[in-house]
Amino acid sequence: MTEFYWATNKKTRTRTCKGCAEDRQKERKTLKKETYSYLAHLRHLRVTYGLSKEEYCRLMDMQGGRCAICNILITARENAQVDHDHETGRIRGILCFCCNTAIGKFRDSVDMMLLAIEYLRKEPPVLQLRSKELSAEERKHNRSDAVQRWHDSDYGKTVTKARAIHQSGENNMVSRLSDKQRIDIAIRYNAGGLSQQDLATEYGVSQGAIARIMKKDREGK
């Protein structure tokens, strides 16, 4: 029984032995990144929205491959976002990232959107104390100067040094784990049911170290 991983309920074992699970993990890493991303996208559609590949493609064709709001050309897996009613779960259409985020910020409220439209149509107030309107180039220059001043300040130098130390510590934690442990972590996290913090506690490392392992796993390294 020790040849099988514990299931998420910690009471039973998984159906796949450790050796087969590791073989599958290695096989997945050999797949091209685009192929793996495509399979993950299909799984996301099926699990999150109950959409099959055929239904999703039909919906994209009905919209002509464009956002249902701004009519910009969208591409699957990159900019296309499935919009749905959060109360009923009913799918309303496919939007670009900006439009989907925008209506989410307005909490799907038509009244709030109408108020925003009315606000945008109003003439802005005249600010008597403001000497002039800054151009885009002037704003960019001011931001760059502010960032540089922060890095040159004592506080900025302290924060930068602390970040470097923290990153070095996480790298050391990852290097302490064996290759088998890293593969085990990736398999168990991808199986679901365990958070990065759960695995960090079990293996005696930080959550950041687990995040680094999962990032390398997604990149196929």
Biggest sheet statistics: 2 strands, antiparallel
Name the CATH class of the largest domain.
Alpha Beta
Count of domain modules: 2
Strand fraction: 5-15%
Please provide the count of β strands. 4
Q: What is the CATH fold-level name of the largest domain?
A: His-Me finger endonuclease fold
The pLDDT mean sits at 81
Based on the structure, what is the oligomeric state of the protein chains?
single chain
Order of helices and strands: EEHHHEEHHHHHHH
CATH architecture of the largest domain: 3-Layer(aba) Sandwich
List the strand order in the largest sheet: 1-2
Under CATH, the homologous superfamily of the largest domain reads His-Me finger endonucleases
How many helices does DSSP assign? 10
Would you give an account of this structure?
The chain has about 220 residues and is mostly helical. It has two domains: about 30-120, His-Me finger endonuclease fold, CATH 3.40.1800; about 135-220, no CATH class. Helices cover about 60% and strands about 10% of the residues. It has ten helices and four strands; from the N terminus they run ββαααββααααααα. The protein has helices at about 20-30, 35-50, 55-60, 95-105, 110-120, 135-150, 155-175, 180-190, 195-205, 205-220; strands spanning about 5, 15, 80-85, 90-95. The strands form two sheets. The protein has a two-stranded antiparallel sheet with strand order 1-2. Strands 3-4 form a two-stranded antiparallel sheet. A hairpin with a 6-residue loop joins strand 1 and strand 2. Helix 8 crosses helix 10. The chain starts with a strand and ends with a helix.
